[in-house]
Amino acid sequence: MPGGCRGLSTGLHIDLGEWTCHEGAWRSLYLVVPVDDPAAVKDEVGRQLLRFRELMGRNPTHLDSHQHQHRREPAASILGALARDLGVPLRECDARVHYTGAFYGQTADGKPWPEAITQSALVRTLEALPLGFTELRCHPGYAEDLETMYRHERAREVAALCDPRVRQTIERMQVQLASFACLAEERS
């Protein structure tokens, strides 16, 4: 966006649990609430939204969920309704925002896929972007002490995202880095 955006874009990443694939079978690392219990999911989403508001002093600019639980019922309906009520995008459920998960270092069954999170892979992803807003999923960081199935890949993402050739591609393609706060300003 020319001139930038006002405010920090901060989304609510609903956490209902985490699962890992071990020897071809998915198992729970932890469960916040039973994900097949609509009342429990709705109550937990409400608790997490309340905590977000307490910490941030405002509503989130967008919604998503850990390990895409919002793609499955009952979370899909609950988070879809919340996004509509708040007037914010829910990942992959808003026509205004294209989503790409191409920059992710694991396969669908949790196997390492390091070639997906290289500078070259990120450049290819950027070169394939459609016009308009696109959310690029990424999990950069240094988190060796983090207990999650996507731990070692985070530092590789940092390296790819910070590679000067990525910045050169962004400039060459005239990609404007933006946030969900910019999308909210565009609606206004």
Mean pLDDT: 91
Please identify, by name, the CATH architecture of the largest domain.
Alpha-Beta Barrel
Pick out the low-confidence regions. none
Q: What is the overall silhouette? A: globular
CATH third-level topology of the largest domain = TIM Barrel
C-alpha-based Rg, rounded? 17 Å
Sketch the major β-sheet. Answer: 2 strands, parallel
Which features characterize this protein?
about 190 residues, TIM Barrel, 2 domains, alpha/beta
Task: Briefly say what this structure is.
The protein has 188 residues and is an alpha/beta fold. The chain has 6 helices and 6 strands; from the N terminus they run E-E-E-H-E-H-E-H-E-H-H-H. 36% of the residues lie in helices and 14% in strands.
Q: Could you walk me through the main structural features you see in this protein, from its secondary elements to its overall organization?
A:
The chain has about 190 residues and is α/β, with parallel strands linked by helices. It has two domains: about 10-95, no CATH class; about 95-188, TIM Barrel. The chain is about 35% helix and about 15% strand. The chain is built from six helices and six strands; from the N terminus they run βββαβαβαβααα. Strands 1-4 form a two-stranded parallel ribbon. Strands 2-3 form a two-stranded antiparallel sheet. Strands 5-6 form a two-stranded parallel ribbon. α3 links the parallel β5 (about 95-100) and β6 (about 135). α3 packs parallel to α5 (about 165-175). The protein is globular, with a radius of gyration of 17 Å.
Question: Strands, helices and their partners?
Answer:
Layout: E1 12-14, E2 17-22, E3 25-31, H1 38-56, E4 63-65, H2 75-86, E5 97-100, H3 119-127, E6 133-136, H4 153-162, H5 164-173, H6 180-187
Parallel strand pairs: 1-4, 5-6
Antiparallel strand pairs: 2-3
Helix pairs in contact: 3-5
